[in-house]
Amino acid sequence: MEEARQYMDDALQRLEDSYGRLRASLLRERNSAQLAAFLPLEILVEILSYGGIQTTLLATKVCHRWRLAALNHAPIWSRINMQGKLSQSLLQVQLERAGTYPLDVAFNIVNTRTTVENMGLPNNLLDILMKASSISNLSTRTIPAKWTGPLPLLESLHLVVDPMTPVEDYDLRPPNLRHLSIDFREKDLVFHTMVLRNLRTLHIRSIQDPAYKVLQMVLTIKNLTELVLEKCQSGEDMAIEPTESTEPTEPPAQTANLKSLQLLYLKDAAPLFHSHFLKSDIISPSTNLRIEPYPSQDFQSTTSYSAIWFDFAQEYTLLQHGENCSYTRLALEETLPYDTVYDMAHQYSFANVTSLCWIGANMDNPPFQWLPALRSLTFEYHPPAVGSARQSLGDVVGAYLATSCPQLEYLGISIRRPKTTTAILQRDDAELELPGFLETWTDFYGEIFSKVELYDEYRPQRWTELVETLKMLTWDFEIKAQSLMESFIFPVFPETRQFVLKEEEGPAPFRGFAQTFW
């Protein structure tokens, strides 16, 4: 019986070998008639480059032209992602197809209570490292002790320090490194000056050195464009009580600066970093700055701001500054956000702010007295429930706004519907308070207001009979059919460099193509 079964299996395999090629040939001819098969090669390889290795393998089965395009484009095969299912045979295929093209390697990293190590390492590890231009998720445990490979192609490195690896075993000095990310895991690791001096990007996480030592190191990098300091709070930093006059224990040389810095991100960093970067002239006004959480100490920023966006739903604020419209992004406090706003008004220069956008919450006691140059005001009004603090549209658009902001030209109001439909709301007289503000403006300045845009999601019908009156009180009045925030373009804060490769699933194969067998 076993012999007969084997005979039948052999016969089926011969049939597959005979007719499989014919089937593949027919499908190849069918696919070659599709319009997508005639895409220019440069466009085709650009499309394929957005997919992962599995997408590339599928592309080789579409038609002969797609197969050649995928197989002959080395950059597609150069992304070695060991975080997923990567067999030794597939790795070998990728290395062969990549040829001499520099590799982009992402290791699979596993954290335990005592170690940080890379799993599933290939047999030819050192050869791969020598051919790599970008390496992420590399543990110091993976690097052979005392290994001093030159790594001439390496430009980007994301390194995680293994607590069990002796510091003296690490001695890498890639001469052309431009982008470096290190997770110190609160362990010591010294980099040579030769490695640091050519950096353009530096991310530091969980370093145990005090802030002044980190500053001294960073200030030696002359052409740094991006700096990220995350969880950089040593025991020595925590022992220093943050005050307005706090200075580094050993301050850096006064001549050193980071004027080339385009992006600075301080996340859970010591207060000393906040005060030093914000008070001194180390960074330029065109540097994009992001701080999380909101700085706790009282300090005075010398930067002059031109526009402000408050988003209480996302709990952040953006402040625009510099000739190139750079931004400072600050995380808002989860509790007492308004206190944060008023602290900012005292600590930052708002005298030149011309635009203010406020969403996600009502403007309680708005800080208009610090905004004498304000020209544009866009905000949301949420009718409050009975039992909460009394708030009305007139708290914002009233005599206080008219007298504090004489240059105001634009008013954008979105009245939002309550999220809870069963809530009993306070009396809302927006249809009386807006005309009252416009009349106050006319009486005060002797001319009508420039422009008002209004969206009322709560009670839109109440404005029907007031449209003509409001048009007489403004040069331009318009009731919008959708929220102003839907058409409002919020500025996007620049993203930091992503060192860790994230393999994303591409779209499903085009249904007009049938995969062939090769």
UniProtKB/TrEMBL annotation:
Pfam families: F-box-like (PF12937)
Top-rank lineage group of the source organism: Eukaryota
InterPro entries, per the entry: F-box-like_dom_sf, F-box_dom, LRR_dom_sf
Residue stretches making up the F-box domain: 33-80
UniProt name for this protein: F-box domain-containing protein
